[in-house]
Amino acid sequence: MTKARRTVVREGQEGTYHCIARCVRRAFLCGYDDFSGKDYEHRKEWIRLRLKELAGIFAVDVCDYAVMSNHLHVILRNRPDWVTSWSDEEVASRWRWLFPLRRDPTSGQAMEPNPNEIKALAHSPSKMLQLRERLQSISWVMRCLNEWVARKANREDECKGRFWEGRFTSVALLDNAAVLTCSAYIDLNPIRAGIADTPEESDYTSAQDRILARQAKHNLDQLPESAKTHPTYNQKQLIKEMEAQQKRADWLCPIRDTESRKGFLNMDLDDYLGLLDWTGRQIRQDKPGAIPAHFDAILDRLEIDQEAWLDTVQHFGSRFYRVAGSVKNLVQAAREAGQHWFQGKTAAQLAYKST
After folding, report:
1. Mind listing the pLDDT tens digit for each residue in 92-145?
2. For the segment 312-335, what is each residue's pLDDT rounded down to a tens digit?
3. Which letter does DSSP use for residue 192 in this model?
4. Pairwise CA distance, residues 10 & 137, whole Å
5. 70: nearest Cα among 207, 198, 196, 189
6. Rounded distance, CA 18 to CA 351, Å?
7. For position 107, what pLDDT does the model report?
8. How many CA atoms lie within 13 A of 149 on its CB side?
9. Mean pLDDT of 194-219
10. Rounded distance, CA 48 to CA 203, Å?
11. Residue 319 CB: number of other CB atoms within 10 A?
């Protein structure tokens, strides 16, 4: 029987969730559609840019994402603490950027809210309470993403009707082990689907964004001093491109805590990308090997069963339905939801050591 989303998604409390949206009839409405012969690949960039925009408006971290030809994966973490620190004026301004009263008549882009528009919202206590709840809501992020994409695609196709098969589904990630496994599962989606060989070739994924940004930073650091102080015209253009690429992943939640922002995994970026690369190679070659000692220690620290790692990463989506994590955390989540158990207990026993 279908359960209300509120039994898992606790609005007003910080939580991390794996959200999935699928195109109607799972048609390739975001890729090349063999049936119609049309190429909708450009819509993947729509989704990426819309996610980036929403990450700058909502009090929600985008931790991970992958845009596939007929579905979308994203890991979101709501941040009620951010909303608490915002003034009424900032809340009103963010909401008016999201739902503008005025648009540019030529481009259709939202126009900057004026002081009167902000004042009208900010001076309504009941409205402020409602907007603070919405701006930290996982459901509102997905609503503003999916509805925007659907309307834009329908305008392009000059049609009406559903674009997504229904409301998004969500899985609560209850601990670091579940977050790491789910992140690898999402970032390796293109490799499992056979459309990419490595994470850096996996287009429209958070892994690719982070890898390209990291490579750009490395290239900038390696520039000779003469190119930094007296660059030629071509060098200036190259440096400009690399500086833009270096910021490619700035909108994403960092892997580990930084001075200015809370990360979502207790590991370094290089360790995560290294583990991802090794895991992707095993999946692509279909010849599982022994986990390198360095990664073995990371998985052990997170209480992830090393022998089950590859299998769990490949089948995470079908193993956990509403919640994912250790058996202990699954039992606790079921108790808080007023249930005896959640689907996935057997999978949790195999994947995670902690019971």
Report:
1. 999 999 999 988 888 888 888 999 999 999 999 999 999 999 999 999 999 999
2. 999 999 999 899 999 999 988 888
3. H
4. 9
5. 189
6. 17
7. 82
8. 32
9. 95
10. 11
11. 20
Percentage of residues in the chain having pLDDT higher than 70 = 96
Rounded (10°) angle between helices 125-134 and 115-122:
100
Query: 71-78 and 169-173: which strand pairing?
Result: unpaired
Mean pLDDT comparison of 2-6, 141-145, 218-222, highest-scoring range: 141-145
Over range 17-31, report the average pLDDT. 94
309: its two tokens: 């790692």
Task: Name the strand (E) or helix (H) holding 105.
Answer: none
pLDDT on residue 1: 45
And the tokens for 38?
């049309």
| Nearest partner of 166 among 337, 321, 20, judged by Cα | 20
Residues 65, 73: contact at Cβ < 8 Å?
A: yes
Residue 6 burial (10 A CB sphere; 0-12, 13-18, 19+): exposed
**Beta partners for residue 22, in sequence order:** 71
Which of 168, 204, 209 shows the shortest CA–CA distance to 18? 168
* Residues with Cβ within 8 Å of residue 19, at least 6 apart in sequence: 73, 74, 75, 76, 138, 142, 168, 169, 170
Q: Which residue has the tokens 């200015």?
A: 260
Strand partners, 61: 77
Q: What is the pLDDT of residue 2?
A: 54
Dihedral sign, CA of 328, 322, 174, 351? positive
Instruction: Tell whether pTM > 0.85.
Output: yes
Spatial CA neighbour of 116 closest among 86, 96, 87, 135: 96
For residue 288, what are the CA distances in angstroms to 19, 283, 299, 331?
Answer: 28, 7, 16, 32
Residue 89, CA distances (Å) to 53, 83, 124, 129, 338 in order: 19, 12, 11, 13, 39
Ramachandran angles phi, psi of 343, nearest 5°: -60, 135
169-173 and 323-324: which strand pairing?
parallel
Separation of CA 332 from chain center = 26
pLDDT digits (tens, 9 = 90+) for 236-280: 899 999 999 999 999 999 999 999 999 999 899 999 999 999 999
Distance CA 97, CA 118 (A): 10
